[in-house]
């Protein structure tokens, strides 16, 4: 299949699973002019790159051109320094449909009114759903157990107070020592301080993943999958500042292997469309409202039989049903 046929196929896929783009269709001939301009810019910059790096850079540029053409965008994004990818050579870049949906989510996030969080306030989030754990029985067999994720959580916006959780009507303080936040335990202020440039943000996340999931570690997750999971965790941790949320969605569009899964249902029973990435037979899905591109929740689905169950088993499914900034722990927006 030629490059033109491949791009046409992806555009047709995007049109089937996504609502019409809010941007007007460019006039006849404008698309070809943009393509020529993009490719000339690529050719010009390639002359200043070393031959060894050119193949990887060209692949990333190809994604940016295809995504921009599909969305009718007028911006050239040349991404060369997002951190090294651990994806196998045959892992495709994020599909056009997934890039378009992530851009819609970024635009929706960026236009959300900025919440002015003050010291002493809390980021609130309410979730429903379940996670799963494997437990060994007395006979030595492995048993899959579900753990409820129906809970409310209040996190200090600046990390100066301990996090409060409410499950089954009981309140408890998370045992961790209060801190300014991290990628694994973010606060609102920590999220607000993250880079808003998608390339810089993805590099920061990959560099952090390298410490625990890179070469020499026992982890089999890999940097790309860990980056995708980390971004998902940050997005559903509570209230994310609009600019940060937009940057996180755009950073996810730079990760190889990201695609679309249509017709999915979150833990609250809401129908949507998912941006997903599969790693070692497990598919991590971020579920969006198809009309508004608002993040509804996340789930993990088995793509093949393994110790966790048969293919199609929903191992984890967590949906966000409410969130906001409140003055006191225990208060609901």
UniProtKB/TrEMBL annotation:
Composition bias, Basic and acidic residues: 1-14, 159-170
Keyword Transmembrane: yes
Location of region: Disordered: 1-33, 156-185
NCBIfam families noted in UniProt: CU044_5270_fam (NF038083)
Keyword entries, A-Z: Membrane, Transmembrane, Transmembrane helix
Protein name as it appears in the record: CU044_5270 family protein
Membrane is among the record's keywords: yes
Transmembrane parts of this sequence: 61-80
């Amino acid at each position: 299949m030629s490059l033109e046929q491949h791009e046409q196929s992806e555009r047709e896929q995007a049109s089937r699973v996504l609502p019409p783009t809010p941007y007007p269709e460019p006039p006849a001939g404008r698309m070809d002019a943009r393509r020529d301009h993009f490719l000339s810019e690529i050719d010009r910059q390639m002359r200043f790159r070393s031959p060894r790096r050119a193949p990887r850079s060209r692949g990333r540029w190809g994604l940016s051109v295809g995504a921009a053409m599909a969305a009718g965008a007028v911006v050239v994004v040349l991404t060369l320094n997002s951190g090294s990818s651990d994806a196998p050579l045959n892992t495709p870049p994020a599909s056009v449909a997934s890039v378009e949906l992530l851009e819609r989510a970024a635009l929706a996030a960026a236009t959300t009114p900025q919440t002015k969080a003050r010291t002493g306030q809390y980021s609130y989030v309410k979730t429903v759903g379940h996670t799963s754990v494997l437990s060994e029985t007395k006979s030595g067999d492995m048993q899959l157990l579900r753990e409820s994720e129906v809970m409310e959580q209040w996190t200090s916006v600046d990390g100066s107070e301990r996090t409060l959780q409410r499950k089954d009507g009981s309140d408890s303080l998370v045992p961790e020592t209060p801190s300014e936040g991290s990628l694994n335990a973010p606060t609102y202020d920590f999220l607000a301080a993250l880079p808003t440039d998608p390339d810089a943000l993805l590099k920061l996340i990959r560099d952090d993943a390298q410490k625990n999931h890179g070469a020499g570690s026992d982890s089999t997750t890999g940097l790309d999958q860990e980056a995708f999971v980390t971004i998902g965790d940050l997005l559903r941790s509570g209230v994310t500042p609009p600019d940060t949320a937009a940057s996180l969605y755009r950073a996810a569009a730079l990760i190889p292997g990201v695609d679309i899964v249509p017709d999915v249902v979150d833990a609250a029973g809401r129908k949507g469309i998912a941006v997903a990435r599969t790693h070692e037979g497990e598919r991590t899905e971020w579920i969006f409202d198809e009309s508004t591109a608002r993040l509804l929740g996340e789930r993990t689905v088995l793509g093949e039989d393994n110790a966790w169950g048969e293919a199609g088993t929903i191992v984890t499914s967590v949906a966000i049903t409410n969130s906001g900034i409140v003055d006191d722990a225990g208060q609901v927006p």
